[in-house]
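Next comes this protein.

***
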Amino acid sequence: MSYEEIIYDVSDKVATITLNRPDRLNAFTTQMARELIDAFGKADADDDVRVVIVTGAGRGFCAGADLGGGAGTFDNRVRGGAQDIEAHRDGGGVVTLRIYDMSKPVIAAINGPAVGVGITMTLPMDIRLAVPDAKIGFVFARRGIVPEACSSWFLPRIVGIGRATEWVYSGRVFPATEAHANGLIQHICEPDELLPKANAIAREIADNTSAVSVALSRHLMWKGLGYDHPMESHKVDSKSIFFMGQSADAAEGVTSFLEKRDARYPMTVPKDLPEFFPWWEERKFS
């Protein structure tokens, strides 16, 4: 797929996806959703990509859905989409579900306003950084709609139900500093430090860790959020540590430590994931 509304670039094992509609503060469209889904799939399938960074072109990250369609912006019938409630799928949710299923870490570098889907798309990302003057808002109730992009699942798990409900019910726009204080944002960075910080985090992962270990760890934590008892985590943890314990990466990790040298992990994603992957698609664990 050729991209018109995002930029996709890979350099030194880091893929950078840039939302690229700066004249509209990178407002979200159906086309952007399709391109993002394709780009995340491309990054996941590329053994030369270890980490993905998502940012915005210009002075904004993403100002939410493009409201240029006027009163019918959110009316799927006007947009020519599915005509019945069962057939329709929220486009933002399709994007966030693709990110949720990533085997590579994803870092959001929020360089400006992140409102509506502009912030909900970041919730399944692993680490969020923002500039001090970034404005954030779950503004759905102020537009006569409801939270989308699976955010009613993600947001309470990240910040707690009390903070999530206050932000969503009020629909108010708040500063990145408030998001940071409540755990939504991990790092506040000055504008000229934002991408260097994101890349430094990406380099720490790409240069020092096993790709397969990180992939399994990401799925263990994200998929484990839905378990109703720690025994379910114990079962899949046990499978994973058994598999990795006899792997070439484990041997290299221990040997490089003992020899006091940088590790050179031979295993790659997705080629070397275990046969029980993806385990969360099973109804029961053996």
